[in-house]
Amino acid sequence: MSVFSARTGLAAVALLAAVATGGCAQLRSHQGYVVDVDLVNSVQPGVDNRQSVLATLGKPTITGQFDQGDWYYVARDSRNYAFRNPRPNAQITLQISFDAKGTVTAIRRSGMEQVASISPYGKKTPTLGRERGFFADLFGNIGTVGAAGAGGGNNGSNTGGGRNRP
Asked: Residue 97: which domain range?
């Protein structure tokens, strides 16, 4: 075996090792709001309103769904290796509550305790209902629309408050 082929083989192994270890490098990512502690601390309950919070912190990540009294600013740092799923490393959730007039009433901060880890259970999600197969789901509603006791029609009863019509 010549010295040249031994060096070429050694270089190929070193190159392959460098590529393999490069694929295991940790990837970091940031999602959501970029938190500036000084700006967040400048928002005061009872002093600021929606317009001043919008001017100071910017548009919220999420607004309350049922009432528009809460704004949420969410920031998450994640890490992962190669092709694995990202895992949250740190998270900050800033919740700002407003009253009916738009004045800040409360500011709450939370962290990683709000992150839920959900693991799917096999190929099927367990439910508290009855077990139904494919054909029961496909043909299960045949005959129930408009049937007595199924809520499909008014069955001759007067639910509209007016006269019964034939």
From this structure: 34-113
In a domain, 134, yes or no: no
- Amino acid letter at 43? V
In a domain, 121, yes or no: no
5 inside domain: no
The pTM score is 0.56
pLDDT per residue, tens digit, the chain (166 aa), is 555 677 787 777 777 766 666 556 778 787 888 888 888 888 899 888 989 999 999 899 888 877 777 999 999 888 887 777 777 888 888 999 998 888 999 999 988 887 777 776 667 766 777 777 788 888 877 877 666 665 544 544 445 444 545 5
Q: Which domain CATH number covers 62?
A: 3.30.1450
